[in-house]
Amino acid sequence: MRSTEITPEKDGEQVVVAGWVHEVRDLGGLVFIVLRDREGFIQITLPKKVVDPETFRKARKVSRESVIMVEGTVKKEDKAPNGFEIIPKKFEILNESSAPLPLEVTEKVPAELDTRLDNRFMDLRRPKIQAIFRIKSQIVKSIRDFLYSEGFIEVQTPKIVSTATEGGTELFPISYFEKEAFLNQSPQLYKQILMSAGFERVLEIGPIFRAEEHNTTRHLNEATSVDIEMSFTDHEGVMKLLERLVAKVYEDVIQNCEKFLNILELKLEVPEIPFPRITYTSAIEIARKSQEIPWGEDLDLQALKTIGAELGGFYFITEWPTKIKPFYVMPFEDEKICKSFDLMYGYIELASGAQREHRYQKLVESIKAKGLRPESFEFYLKAFRYGMPPHAGWGLGLERFVMAMLNLSNIREAMLFPRDRTRVSP
Ligand code: ATP
Ligand code: MG
User: Which of 191, 209, 219, when mutated, tests ligand 1's pocket best, judged by the most ligand atoms within 8 Å of its CB?
Assistant: First the structure.
């Protein structure tokens, strides 16, 4: 049984529990063991006079973090966690832990992030760290549930590709038999091809790989992207969808993850929709309070911090300069600006999206204008020559979303085994 399945009302019942030895307290004639499982803690109480001598001897010697299985009687005990304890009949050590431990599982001694990540299996045993991933799991489930209910089909596109999505340099090359190939930085081109294929609404939750050299607290070299693409709509349509999705995820997390939010000492509120919107042009006017920034330049960290401080919470930045957004974005009639948007949370970019250019000739011109060769995109362009519907979509960084919701100071906290500039293991 799990710790949460037992209550003081089960007083007198026989149960079997299993987990890790969180703590051992030896008071001579009485030994307390705190057993930790996925859901919480259970006090195992061994009075010398009551339990058999062999069990007593084993229990008092067991090392912390060993895996044990205990069979015994539930006893109501107000002073124990959750109001009960277990008096064991059988005490089995399934696997003995070595000592000393590479990392403290109790919250007593704080460790550096690097040490924690080097010993991630043990770091993840800490209830606070588990809480992050229990909430992340709920977030993914909510996203799926919401998008399925909106008629989206979940797809899997290739992660090994031959062309850069955006012609950038942020690609990891791999050797693919006698050719060179790359790890995909985004499912963008493939989800667009699926619009030509007639899927109308697709969703993908999968890894993206970015060979970004910089080591920041909001970049990973392997991240998870939630991508959608939708036909017969525009940027407005997919922005509204994104807002509703964010609000729904908050609702679900608040409803289903109270325990984990409490462990993290967080109180969440469902953000109000629609989110505030500002155009890129108004955004740089705010940024200019703290720095020089010419129109047309991308917003750097300092600019985003100034803007984020003024707007706070969730907001959209819209109407970006065409020249700093990728070729597949559709420009407005005034071609200097495009139908692209970023969803922000404070200074952190959570998602980028746009109405896409679906007109073949315009798309080819746009590829050329970015200094790229249309021939390298033939597999993609072909899908635009035989009936491509108007479409729009976005990509939401899952770890950025977790980071924003749980107020984490480093994106690595939102990834089980993060990959960064120096870390490829564990
Ligand atoms: P940034 O400007 O913050 O580096 P980006 O504009 O390069 O991000 P996009 O290509 O727009 O990122 O990707 C869509 C989303 O994927 C981003 O809004 C972000 O949430 C997430 N994302 C992109 N790159 C990374 C990364 N290196 N680590 C974590 N998440 C990322
Ligand atoms: Mg972006």
Answer: 219
Sign of CA dihedral 253, 254, 257, 263: positive
**What is the reported pLDDT for 163?**
80
Asked if 37 contacts 2 with a C-beta cutoff of 8 angstroms, the reply is yes
d(CA 287, CA 321): 16
3-class SS of residue 13? coil
Q: Is 134 helix (H, G, I), strand (E, B) or coil?
A: helix
> Going by C-beta distance under 8 Å and a sequence separation of 6 or more, which residues neighbour residue 109?
none
**Shortest-distance atom of ligand 1 to CA 219:** 28
3-95 falls under which CATH superfamily?
Answer: Nucleic acid-binding proteins (2.40.50.140)
Which residue out of 349, 419, 421, 423 is catalytically annotated?
349
**What's the pLDDT score for residue 43?**
97
Note the CATH architecture for domain 123-414.
2-Layer Sandwich (3.30)
DSSP string covering 205-259: EEEEE-------TT--SEEEEEEEEEES--HHHHHHHHHHHHHHHHHHHHHH-HH
- What residues does each domain of the chain span? 3-95, 123-414
**Are the CB atoms for 335 and 322 separated by under 8 Å?**
yes
Using CA positions, which residue lies closest to atom 9 of ligand 1? 352
Q: Which residues contact 25 (CB under 8 A, 6 or more apart)?
A: 31, 32, 33, 34
Q: Catalytic site residue 212?
A: yes
How many other CB atoms sit within 10 Å of the CB of residue 198?
9
Closest Cα to atom 6 of ligand 1 = 352
Do 123-414 and 3-95 fall under one CATH topology?
A: no
List the chain residues with pLDDT less than 70: 165, 167-168
pLDDT of the residue at 378: 95
